[in-house]
Design a protein that fits this description.
With 391 residues, the chain is α/β, with parallel strands linked by helices. The protein folds into 2 domains: 127 residues, Alpha-Beta Complex (Aspartate Aminotransferase, domain 1); 233 residues, Type I PLP-dependent aspartate aminotransferase-like (Major domain) (Aspartate Aminotransferase, domain 2). It has 15 helices and 13 strands. It has a 7-stranded mixed sheet with strand order 3-9-8-7-6-4-5, sandwiched between helices. A 3-stranded mixed sheet has the order 1-2-11. A 3-stranded antiparallel sheet has the order 10-13-12. The radius of gyration is 21 Å and the shape is globular. The termini are far apart.
Length: 391
C-alpha cells in the first residue's frame, strides 16, 4: 500500500457520495456580475453583502495607504507591526459598535482562535451552540476547558447546563449571531439573561450580522438593543466590509487582555496597510448612511418571497442568507452546475459544512444586485428546479 493511498481513497469516496467540492476560480473583481472560470456570471454566492469588495472609496483608501505605508508592516503586532492605521481602525470599530474598545486580527477565524483560548482556561467551562461556526469549534478545541454543547438556539437547555455547572469559576457562552448556513438568529436576549443569572461571559460571533443587522449594520447586539451586556463581539471584515480581517470588540479589560495573550496577535504578522485603510473607509460609509444596508434588505425580502412563490423551500432564514433546501448532495451539485451553465453562480453546500441530508444551494444577497439581476436569477432557478423535479 502506497503512503498516499488513504488520501486517494478518501477523495474517491467524496466523489462517489457527491461530496467533492468543485472550487471555481474568480477572474475579475467581485461584483454582482463576476468572471468565474473565464465566464461572466451573475454572482449569487459571495459574502459581498454591501457591494464593498470593489467599492471605489475603499480602493482609493487602499491605494493611498500603500503609497504612504508600503505593502506590509513586516512584524507581529506586539513587536513592531502595530501601525497608526491599526490603532485608528480599532478606535473606529469600537465607536461604531458602541463598545469600550476593540482589537483587530488577520481574520474573523483568527479572532476566535485568539479570544476563546485566552479567556477559557482549564478551570473554565464553555457552553457552545451545536451549530456554531468551524472557527468557534476550533477555538474551543485549542482550550483545556470543559465543553458543553447545547441544542441549537435552546435557551432552556443552556440555562439548565449553566445551573449544573454553577460552581465553575469561569463560564463562557459562545454563539453565532447569525448562523451562516440557515440564516437564523441566535436568541440573544435569552442567552444574555441566562448569562447574567449565572455569572457567565458571553461571546457572540457576528460574522454574518456585521453590516447587515442593526442600525447602519452595527450588528446583532445593536439589533436586539443589548449594548453593554455582551462581553465580546467577534466580527469579520471580509464579508459585508468587503476586505479581510477580524476583530474582537467589548469590555476594555478583555480587549487589553487579548492584546497581551491572543496568540494570532502575538505570533502572526499584522494585517497589511491597504486592507486596514479599506476597512476604515467601509466604517466611514456605514456611519454616514445606511442606504446600502436598506438596499440589501429590500433585495433579500423580494428574492425570498419570489423563491417561495415558485415553491422552493428556503428553510428558517431570518437574514439575507437564503438557503434553497434540496436534501441530497448529488442533486445540489447538479443544481449548481446547471445554474452555472445558465450564467448564475451559486455553489452547492453539502456535508461536512451542513449535516448529511441537508444539502442546499446557499444564495447570498448583495446590495449591488439590481431588480433585473434578481429576476434573471429567479428565471434560471425556476428552470433548473423544474428540470430536476424540485418544484
Amino acid at each position: 500500500m502506497g503512503k498516499y493511498d488513504f488520501i486517494t481513497q478518501a477523495l474517491d469516496g467524496l466523489k462517489e457520495q457527491g461530496l467533492y467540492n468543485i472550487i471555481r476560480s474568480i477572474d475579475s473583481a467581485v461584483g454582482p456580475w463576476t468572471v468565474v472560470d473565464g465566464k461572466r456570471v451573475l454572482n449569487m454566492c459571495s459574502n459581498n453583502y454591501l457591494g464593498f469588495a470593489n467599492e471605489e472609496r475603499l480602493k482609493g483608501a487602499a491605494l493611498k495607504a500603500v503609497e504612504e505605508f508600503g505593502v506590509g508592516p513586516a512584524a507581529v503586532r506586539s513587536i513592531a507591526g502595530t501601525m497608526c492605521l491599526h490603532r485608528e481602525l480599532e478606535s473606529r470599530l469600537a465607536a461604531f459598535k458602541g463598545t469600550e474598545d476593540a482589537v483587530s486580527f488577520q481574520s474573523g477565524f483568527c479572532a476566535n482562535l485568539a479570544a476563546i483560548p485566552a479567556v477559557a482556561g482549564k478551570q473554565s467551562t464553555i457552553f457552545t451552540d451545536e451549530l456554531n461556526h468551524a472557527s468557534i469549534i476550533d477555538g474551543c478545541r485549542l482550550t483545556k476547558a470543559q465543553r458543553v454543547i447545547f441544542p441549537h438556539r435552546d435557551v432552556e437547555a443552556l440555562s439548565s447546563a449553566l445551573e449544573e455547572h454553577r460552581d465553575v469559576p469561569v463560564k463562557l457562552i459562545i454563539t453565532d449571531g447569525v448562523f451562516s448556513m440557515d440564516g437564523d438568529l441566535a436568541p440573544l436576549p435569552g442567552i444574555v439573561d441566562a448569562a447574567e443569572a449565572h455569572g457567565a461571559l458571553v461571546l457572540v460571533d457576528d460574522a454574518h450580522g456585521e453590516g447587515v443587522m442593526g442600525s447602519h449594520g452595527r450588528g446583532i447586539v445593536d439589533h436586539f438593543g443589548l449594548h453593554g451586556r455582551v462581553d465580546m463581539e467577534v466580527g469579520t471584515l471580509s464579508k459585508a466590509f468587503g476586505v479581510v480581517g477580524g476583530y474582537v470588540a467589548g469590555k476594555r479589560e478583555i480587549v487589553e487582555y487579548l492584546r497581551q495573550q491572543g496568540r494570532p496577535f502575538l505570533f502572526s504578522s499584522a494585517t497589511s496597510p491597504a486592507d486596514v485603510a479599506a476597512c476604515i473607509a467601509a466604517v466611514d460609509i456605514l456611519e454616514k448612511s445606511d442606504d446600502v444596508v436598506r438596499k440589501l434588505w429590500d433585495n433579500a425580502r423580494y428574492f425570498k418571497a419570489e423563491l417561495a412563490g415558485l415553491g422552493f423551500d428556503t428553510g428558517v432564514s431570518e437574514s439575507p442568507i437564503t438557503p434553497v433546501m434540496l436534501g441530497d448532495a448529488k442533486v445540489a451539485w447538479d443544481f449548481s452546475k446547471r445554474l452555472f451553465n445558465a450564467d448564475v453562480f451559486a455553489q452547492a453546500i453539502a456535508y461536512p459544512t451542513v449535516p448529511k441530508g441537508k444539502a442546499r444551494i446557499r444564495v447570498m444577497m448583495s446590495a449591488g444586485h439590481s431588480r433585473e439581476d434578481l429576476d434573471f436569477a429567479l428565471e434560471v432557478f425556476a428552470e433548473v428546479g423544474r428540470a430536476l423535479g424540485v418544484i
